Amino acid sequence: MHNNEIALQIAGVIRGVVRPSGDAFVPLHEPTFRGREKDYVTECIETGWVSTAGQFVERFELELAAYCGVRRAVAVCNGTAALHTCFIIAGVQPGDEVIIPALTFVATANAVSYAGAIPHFADSEETTLGIDPVKLTEHLEKITEMRDGACYNRETGNRIAAISPMHTFGHPSMLDELLMVANRFNIALVEDAAEALGSDYKGRHCGGFGKINAVSFNGNKVITTGGGGALLTNDDALADRAKHITTTAKLPHRWYYDHDVVGYNYRMPNLNAALGVAQLEQLPGLLEGKRALAMRYAQIFADIPNVNFITEPEHCKSNYWLNALLLDRGSEKELEPILKVTNDAGLMTRPAWRPMHQLPMFTDAPRMNLSVAESLAQRLINIPSSAGLL
Ligand SMILES: *Cc1c(COP(=O)(O)O)cnc(C)c1O
Predict the structure, then answer these.
(1) How far is the CA of 224 from the centre of ligand 1 (A)?
(2) Would you identify the CATH topology of the domain 37-281?
(3) Model confidence over 226-263: pLDDT tens digits?
(4) What does pTM read for this prediction?
(5) Which of 73, 96, 237, 377 could lock onto 64 through a cystine, CB 3.0 to 4.6 A?
């Protein structure tokens, strides 16, 4: 069947690359526990410190901040909660707009909504898969005006309060250029670095470029705490505020329960932080494994026509969280057969997310022309990416 030629070829390549597994099912991304995970989690259970107090949360925060090269990390219960809190701290108010890529996981848009704000969708750029700073600048020049130092969307009347670049599959977005746009229009930048733990932009770790930024430790991310996330910042006052509002905004006192604002119960339990401390110890080795797998894929897919393996952008080091193939323009019709043949063969693959503006709850949201994001969504395929696959 001519129709399936590329699909069969791709399935063959993936089966050939992954650790000899016979016909076994190969997931897209599974966690790896080869360190002291069990010891630390057992320690929580044996000492009784499993929940909201215990030493692993603070230890995880200190070690995470050091790894990411930022002053402070605040651990929370998941990445979406981290991002929601980032927007509050960055000054996003109900009725504001927040610029996010149309091509992202739904959590980015949901977190904007939790803050009472409206996502404003930006188009992608084809080499990094992140927000296109040139196209965004042209769009903002056309539709915004500055009033009292703030940026307003003339078409909706809303303030544009923040921009949240997302580092797709772990590949850093064009942060220098996006920071220039943010500064020029006086918009706060908050990185959705959920997928980018272990990725560097020009020698600095992702998650340290905005005022305050979010990472995730969900089960399918580079490292996991079961479920979890963190805010990263170089500003002590913002970190203190983040800690306060994610822990019910309780004022410290030995016995009185006083709270000064509506806070959130977003804290990371000690049990999850214990897993996180052990996973952080493993992170450098996991990244090496993922890089070796990506290099092997890159080498082999170079010989397959109409298919491009996505590699890290210039001046960046990617964590290669999820490996991705990009079909040439004109080869969109191959997407469906490739997904079918590979999944039928027990090799888990999936397309990129449905772009946010095509989801029912965001169809009316403001946006720019999204032609590149729409095209990428028809041509991207994620392939098995676990650290131990090679
Ligand atoms: C994983 C992820 C998040 C946060 O997810 P949680 O599952 O809530 O930890 C946010 N944004 C993006 C782009 C993600 O991939």
Answers:
(1) 12
(2) Aspartate Aminotransferase; domain 2 (3.40.640)
(3) 999 999 999 999 999 999 999 999 999 999 999 999 99
(4) 0.97
(5) 73
